[in-house]
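Give me structure tokens for this 231-residue protein.
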Amino acid sequence: MRPLHRESHFIARIGWLRAAVLGANDGIISTASLVVGVAAASKSASDVMIAGAAALVAGATSMAAGEYVSVSSQADTEAADMQKERRELAEQPESELDELTNIYIDRGLTPSLAREVAVQLTAKDAFETHARDELGLSSHVVARPVQAAFTSAATFAVGAALPLLMAVLSPPSLIPWIVSGGSLVALALLGAIGARTGGAGIIKPMLRVVFWGAVAMGATAAIGRLVGHAV
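Here you go.
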């Protein structure tokens, strides 16, 4: 007997990967943009540090709250759908069996084979079968609010710490340039790591995140310079 072939699919990582990439990306871009904008408007290093630290704390808290609320809404919808499915399975088992049969027919099985598959899978675990094949829900894509909130907050804080550290170590006159350049490099690396972890190509994700990071930092630098001159 041949040994079992074990496969590991990237889709299993999607729950935490999306939150991690979003958190770190947002942490770098928002904090670097704020630091660059304040540095362009003010020559005071203390103003830049205060703004960067505030951005880190407020951003991490906001990301955690936003992710928790958003993913909780998704989880509530999933729970409502699953409760509805359980009720329909209890009240209308034959109709649900017909529905499952039609799903398999639409996927390419002959009517007789689709019926047989539906009967056998229903006999094994009717609810799990309907959750997977009718609702599209499975263990690796189900919403996890706490995991998403914690991951987003932690990765935002790590991402935000990078431009803040660059600002601390830079001469005040060079903060906008060093933070901008270093943050774009960090964004490129983040895009590559996220793409590689998810099993995708790295060039497009890198270019995408670097482009939008440059746009954000360029916009805040321009606004900061205008405000600085006006004041």
